[in-house]
């Protein structure tokens, strides 16, 4: 599978990551499922009451839910919650053990969720993407690294305004 990441969404992630640098920030990924592929067209940020630490952040959950609801309304329910994103300021685009347990927890309510991590600083951010999968022969699900492809979201696609705060 491939994670298709809209260039605008990737840009907003980088802007947000730089605003909070050297602290971590993050949010949710919205878009579509296309077979096993995921197409990310919008992101929601951490929210005004989020708490940001060096290696963790706690999102403003009620604000995020409002933003997601609004995105659903603006697109007539076309967008889907696909997973979460967050930054690793001055770090590497790799899953920490907390990241793995977060993605495993999300997978209890969302089928095959994805996690996107942006690592770096200033103009140098590297993206990594993972999907929680349950391989045959394995009893428990695992996060598998997935390729990310960037694309320009066609202007005629239904979308909500990017809400990053
Ligand atoms: Zn992390």
UniProtKB/TrEMBL annotation:
InterPro entries: JAB_dom_prok. It holds the Pfam family Prok-JAB. Residues 9-120 form the JAB domain. Gene3D superfamilies: Cytidine Deaminase, domain 2 (3.40.140.10). One of its GO terms (biological process) is proteolysis. GO terms for molecular function: metal ion binding; metallopeptidase activity. Keywords: Hydrolase, Metal-binding, Metalloprotease, Protease, Zinc. This is JAB domain-containing protein. It comes from Rhizobium fredii.
């Amino acid at each position: 599978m491939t994670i298709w990441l809209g260039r605008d969404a990737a840009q907003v992630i980088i802007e947000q990551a730089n605003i909070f640098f050297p602290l971590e920030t993050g949010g949710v990924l919205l878009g579509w499922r296309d077979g096993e592929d995921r197409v990310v067209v919008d992101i929601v940020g951490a929210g005004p009451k989020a708490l940001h630490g060096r290696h963790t952040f706690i999102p403003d959950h009620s604000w995020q839910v409002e933003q997601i609801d609004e995105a659903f309304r603006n697109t007539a329910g076309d967008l889907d919650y696909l997973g979460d994103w967050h930054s690793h300021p001055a770090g590497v685009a790799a899953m920490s053990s907390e990241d793995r347990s977060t993605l495993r927890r999300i997978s209890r309510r969302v089928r095959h969720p994805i996690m996107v991590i942006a690592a770096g600083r200033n103009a140098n951010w590297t993206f990594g993407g993972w999907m929680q999968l349950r391989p045959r022969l394995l009893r428990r699900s695992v996060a598998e690294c997935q390729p990310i492809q960037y694309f320009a979201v066609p202007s005629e696609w239904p979308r909500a305004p990017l809400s990053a705060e």
